[in-house]
Specification:
Radius of gyration: 19 Å
Order of helices and strands: HHEEEEEHEEEEEEEEE
CATH class of the largest domain: Mainly Beta
Oligomer: single chain
Number of helices: 3
Structural class: alpha+beta
Shape: elongated
Distance between the termini: 40 Å
Length: about 220
């Protein structure tokens, strides 16, 4: 299993600390400390894991792959979303501390705008967190010219959104583009809500880069 490069500082420190604490403790017979160090190592590897080889379940470029692992917490319609400049359907995914936290592009296209907004750190499971918490909106232009958005939203524990993208950069469907460290929320924002075919429901577990959340209509 791979570890994400977006957390290299954190997992490098945690692994070094676990080994430095665990090995001498084991040699000295201090087993509780050694076990604690081992658990810290396992927790670090688990949180920063980055499973390779993920492929969208549908090859159709109009099928939107999930940008995150987690559970669909809401599917809402907004009358004027900034990512679209009009009506949009928003599919919200809650990520617990046990989920993979690497974000992936739902479709192929060009990054046209990045909007970071400071905010609060409410529990990511609350409805208000999607509006009030710190967030980062990635607006992409698809190959057919339409726009979609991926919004990274912090949680009560998550205090760092990682997104090294730049305007003008191209992303391919399923490509990694950042992460949110510890529990958080990711939203997929799609245009033309009257014609979008949403393929998931609230409470459904999804896999980033694999599960198809929706299908947008052809132009």
């Amino acid at each position: 299993m791979l570890l994400t490069r977006y957390g290299i500082r954190e997992w490098s420190i945690a692994i070094a600390a676990s080994l430095a604490l665990g090995i001498p403790s084991a040699l000295l017979g201090w087993w509780p400390i050694s076990v604690l160090a081992g658990l810290l190592l396992l927790a670090t590897v688990w949180f920063f894991r980055d499973p390779p080889g993920r492929v969208p379940a549908d090859a159709d470029p109009l099928a939107m792959a999930s940008p995150a692992d987690g559970v669909v917490s809401a599917i809402v319609r907004e009358s004027n979303h900034s990512a679209i400049g009009g009506e949009a359907v928003v599919i919200r995914i809650f990520l617990s501390v046990l989920d993979v936290h690497v974000n992936r592009a739902p479709a192929s296209g060009e990054v046209v705008r990045l909007e970071h907004r400071p905010g609060r750190y409410l529990d990511a499971r609350s409805e208000a967190s999607a509006r009030l918490n710190e967030s980062n909106l990635v607006v992409m232009k698809l190959d057919d010219g339409r726009h979609l958005g991926i919004k990274q939203i912090s949680g009560a524990i998550a205090r760092r959104i990682v997104c090294p993208l730049q305007s003008g950069q191209r992303l391919e469907r399923g490509q990694r583009f950042g992460m949110i460290k510890v529990g958080s929320t990711t939203e997929l924002v799609l245009p033309d809500p009257d014609r979008v075919e949403v393929l998931v429901k609230t409470g459904q577990r999804v896999v980033g880069g694999v599960t198809i959340l929706a299908r947008i209509p052809a132009i």
